[in-house]
UniProtKB/TrEMBL annotation, chain A:
It is found in: Cell membrane. This is Binding-protein-dependent transport systems inner membrane component. Keywords: Cell membrane, Membrane, Transmembrane, Transmembrane helix, Transport. It holds the Pfam family BPD_transp_1. One of its GO terms (biological process) is transmembrane transport. It comes from the Bacteria. Gene3D superfamilies: MetI-like. GO terms for cellular component: plasma membrane. The chain crosses the membrane at residues 26-46, 90-112, 124-145, 175-199, 220-245, 282-303. It is a multi-pass membrane protein. The lineage of its organism: Bacteria, Bacillati, Bacillota, Bacilli, Bacillales. InterPro entries: ABC_transporter_permease, MetI-like, MetI-like_sf. Residues 86-303 form the ABC transmembrane type-1 domain.
UniProtKB/TrEMBL annotation, chain B:
CDD domains: TM_PBP2. PANTHER family: ABC TRANSPORTER PERMEASE PROTEIN MG189-RELATED-RELATED, ABC TRANSPORTER PERMEASE PROTEIN YESQ-RELATED. This is Sugar ABC transporter permease. Its main location: membrane. It comes from the Bacteria. The chain crosses the membrane at residues 12-32, 74-93, 105-128, 140-161, 182-204, 242-263. Keywords: Cell membrane, Membrane, Transmembrane, Transmembrane helix, Transport.
């Protein structure tokens, strides 16, 4: 009897203990999950859903919103500025990723496979642009491109080419291309580092075998290095393409879409419609935002179709 | 393997050198121009400074109110960093190592945002912040950035946490530790490398964040350093005070440079880790 009582007591104590533990667990879970989850629902998911609704409104943010159905979408299709911006987007989503991937692959290959003594310093220098903010990168390039006192014209003059105060960002023909360079310049470093790590994970024996068989450096690059890091290249391509559709900060700071809309992109157009100085057109801007969403999803699907994911085995 | 040095090696080395120069040279150019006078700069953009004008720096500091905007940035970045990293760590632990009902559902719900580009949410987010009276406030920005989007870091830290051995918590519970104690005394110390990586990238993201502060902060006394320099540059177009602007840009770059020098290795490693997960 004594033993039974003792056992009961222990069971009760144990249950008390586990009750306490499970209560603590519940409290912990609430504390750990609730703030982030509520924040996520409120600040991320809810706005994303609301953007669909907003796109059906005629609303300037001040007067009452009017439900107009698909009117915004109809005007969008007729809006030639949207199509011009889309054209610029397409241009950037091809040119910028192509340049970034090509340059960073080349640099990474050189840094990894050639044992030049200065290589370790270069790795640090190349990545540096990725630590700088978009504002700083943009301001640096605005100083470079300036017509009268810019670095670029100054250098051209040293080589005997007088540009007569030509302002690279102020001309409709050059502005769109002039923006490509800071985008590439500011993006390459990250991908150099990514590619270096990918390349260095390729077993050395593969290279050695190729050397023994007398393969030339170029064929080693194209037959061994690039095929084996295809997966990494793919991730990078997706990253840069999607980033080039989304990112408009650098364009906003350097040209704000000008001159005469020659550098406008969809994200920036939407931004200026919603937050620009003259007027706010939240409904229409939201419709364009939805369009942007569709483009991003579309781009992802196209990449998946033409550049399917695959696993490489060594 | 001994490599032969060929003509092509010369070309490659030159290429690497040119890319490095394209990065360093503009920065150095701005640095030495920031020590000249406007008159001298307008006369010749190449000449080296004759007598060094440190006053450009004090002028930039006072004229652009960099002190104030650095304090704003420190408050915004500091609090968002600590709060955001703490919340992400708690969240990652609860969602990857604690079994409870609805865990998969919550995880899936959060992962849903990987498919949302977010850019189309800009307007509703702004309206929401306005309704909550959180616009034109650094605290509002902190709330948005610490509670809002953290999926990327959640995945990164979640991956790190799930690689820790399973019986860690179990033995702690056996010894009578509460889940709070286990989290604080065992999980946090063991996952410090992961937490530090997340914190470093949060720092870079926050310090370099332009669009958020630009949209939400209207009052110049609340500008973060990035927005401040952007506005200063807009004004410079009318005043043509180049050398002061150069000094300002250099001041803004200093924290990035110091940070990079200290965490260079970690930043580079983390960059690869993060992007491969995405």
């Amino acid at each position: 009897m004594n033993a039974k009582m003792y056992g009961d007591e222990q069971a009760v104590r144990k249950q008390k203990g586990s009750n306490k533990a499970s209560r603590q667990r519940t409290v912990f879970l609430i504390v750990a999950i609730a703030p982030s989850l509520l924040g996520y629902l409120l600040f991320t998911l809810y706005p994303n859903l609301m953007s669909v609704y907003y796109s059906l409104l005629n609303w300037d943010g001040l007067t009452d919103a009017k439900f107009v159905g698909f009117d915004n979408y109809v005007s969008m299709v007729k809006d030639k500025f949207v199509w011009r911006a889309l054209y610029h987007n397409l241009l950037y989503m091809i040119v910028v990723p192509a340049l970034i991937v090509f340059i960073s692959l080349l640099l990474a290959y050189l840094l990894n496979n050639k044992s030049y003594k200065e290589n370790s310093i270069y790795k640090v220098i190349f990545f540096f642009t990725n630590v700088l903010s978009t504002v700083v990168v943009a301001l640096l390039w605005s100083f470079i491109y300036d017509g009268s006192f810019g670095l670029l014209n100054g250098m051209l003059e040293l080589f005997g080419m007088s540009m007569n105060d030509f302002y690279w960002l102020g001309d409709t023909r050059t502005a769109i291309w002039a923006l490509v360079i800071p985008m590439v310049w500011g993006g390459v470093g990250l991908y150099v580092v990514i590619f270096i790590n990918a390349i260095s994970s390729i077993p050395k024996s593969l290279y050695e075998a190729a050397y023994l068989e007398g393969a030339r450096p170029m064929s080693i690059l194209f037959r061994i290095t690039i095929p084996l890091i295809r997966g990494v290249i793919r991730v990078c391509v997706v990253f840069v393409i999607l980033g080039s559709i989304k990112g408009f900060e650098i364009i906003m700071i350097l040209t704000n879409g000008g001159p005469e809309g020659s550098t406008d992109v969809i994200g920036l157009y939407m931004f200026n419609l919603a937050f620009g100085k003259e007027y706010h057109n939240y409904g229409y801007a939201s419709a364009i935002g939805m369009f942007l969403f569709v483009i991003l999803v579309g781009a992802k699907l196209i990449i998946d179709k033409f550049y399917p994911e695959e696993n490489v085995e060594y | 393997m001994a490599e032969r040095r060929t003509f092509m090696d010369g070309v490659w080395r030159l290429l690497l050198l040119l890319w490095a120069i394209s990065i360093i040279f503009p920065v150095i150019w701005i640095l030495y121009q920031s020590l000249r006078t406007n008159a001298a700069f307008f006369q010749d953009i190449w000449a080296l400074p004759k007598d060094i004008q440190w006053s450009n720096y004090s002028k930039a500091w006072n004229q652009y109110k960099i002190g104030q905007s650095l304090l704003n940035t420190l408050y915004y970045v500091g609090v968002s960093l600590v709060l955001g990293t703490f919340l992400t760590t708690l969240n990652a632990y609860a969602l990857t190592r604690v079994q409870f009902r609805g865990r998969k559902l919550i995880w899936g719900l959060i992962m849903l945002s990987l498919f949302l580009p977010g850019i189309n949410a800009l307007i509703p987010q702004y309206i929401l912040m306005k309704t909550m009276h959180l616009t034109n406030s650094l605290t509002g920005l902190i709330i948005l950035d610490s509670f809002g989007e953290n999926v990327f870091f959640l995945m990164l830290l979640g991956g790190f946490l799930s690689s820790l051995p399973k019986d860690l918590e179990e033995s702690a519970f056996m010894d009578g530790a509460s889940i709070f104690q286990t989290f604080w005394r065992i999980i946090v110390p063991l996952s410090t490398p992961g937490i530090v990586t997340v914190a470093i990238f949060k720092f870079l993201g926050l310090y370099n964040n332009f669009l958020g502060p630009f949209i939400y902060l209207g009052d110049p006394s609340k500008y973060t350093i990035g927005v401040n320099m952007y506005q200063a540059n807009m004004k410079m177009q009318y005043t043509s005070d180049w050398v002061t602007m150069f000094a300002g840009v250099i001041i803004v770059m200093i924290p990035s440079i110091i940070f990079y020098v200290f965490f260079q290795r970690r930043i580079m490693e983390g960059a690869t880790m993060g992007s491969m997960k995405g």
